[in-house]
């Protein structure tokens, strides 16, 4: 089985969006470079960021997100983001009315069920939790192997926290990656066991 990561862009004060779910300038780094990050032509990053992010994206088999993220993105219109093969959505509600049952989205009702389904789908590829409440719950449950964050030079002051509502201490190892891109600092930590 592949490793389980938690990943998102965040502000220097630890938020992934403001109180209204707007990431604002957190994604500025994704459009400030010269190197296309995907086929859309919209995402363009520095060469340094490309060399770090693209190989990671290519290793991710499944992303796990909460229903809130699914809803505010309109389910990515039925196409998983960043070229990911599948999305597992943690929710206590069924798929939306009219949802295409053939879309590569899987709805489960717990963090444990999400990891089980994601690992089944991903095989030896990476299972990625979106940061926020669902990712924080996975960290608290001891399910996260690695924490990745793209830190943008912005202070929100309040909003949606990177680690969600985690209220206990969790130790990470020293960062094993620290890369400065344009308008971003890429960090990677292994979770201390």
From TrEMBL:
MF-aspect GO terms: 5-amino-6-(5-phosphoribosylamino)uracil reductase activity
GO terms (BP aspect): riboflavin biosynthetic process
Family matches, as Gene3D superfamilies: Dihydrofolate Reductase, subunit A
Domain Bacterial bifunctional deaminase-reductase C-terminal: 89-170
Domain of life (superkingdom): Bacteria
Pfam families: RibD_C
Protein known as: Dihydrofolate reductase
Organism, scientific name: Hoyosella altamirensis
């Amino acid at each position: 089985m592949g490793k389980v990561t938690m990943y998102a862009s965040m502000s220097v004060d630890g938020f992934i969006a403001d109180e209204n779910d707007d990431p604002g300038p957190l994604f500025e780094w994704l459009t400030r470079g010269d190197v296309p990050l995907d086929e859309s032509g919209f995402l363009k990053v520095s060469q340094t960021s490309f060399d770090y992010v693209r190989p990671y994206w290519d290793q991710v088999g499944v992303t796990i997100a909460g229903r809130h993220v699914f809803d505010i993105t309109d389910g990515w219109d039925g196409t998983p983001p960043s070229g990911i093969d599948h999305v597992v959505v943690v929710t206590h509600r069924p798929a939306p009315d009219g949802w295409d049952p053939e879309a590569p989205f899987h709805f489960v009702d717990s963090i444990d069920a999400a990891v089980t389904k994601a690992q089944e789908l991903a095989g030896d590829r990476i299972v990625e939790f979106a940061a926020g409440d669902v990712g924080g719950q996975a960290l608290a449950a001891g399910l996260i192997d690695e924490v990745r964050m793209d830190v943008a030079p912005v202070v929100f002051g309040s909003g949606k926290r990177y680690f969600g509502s985690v209220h206990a201490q969790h130790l990470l190892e020293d960062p094993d990656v620290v890369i400065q891109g344009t308008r971003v600092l890429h960090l990677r930590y292994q979770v201390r066991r």
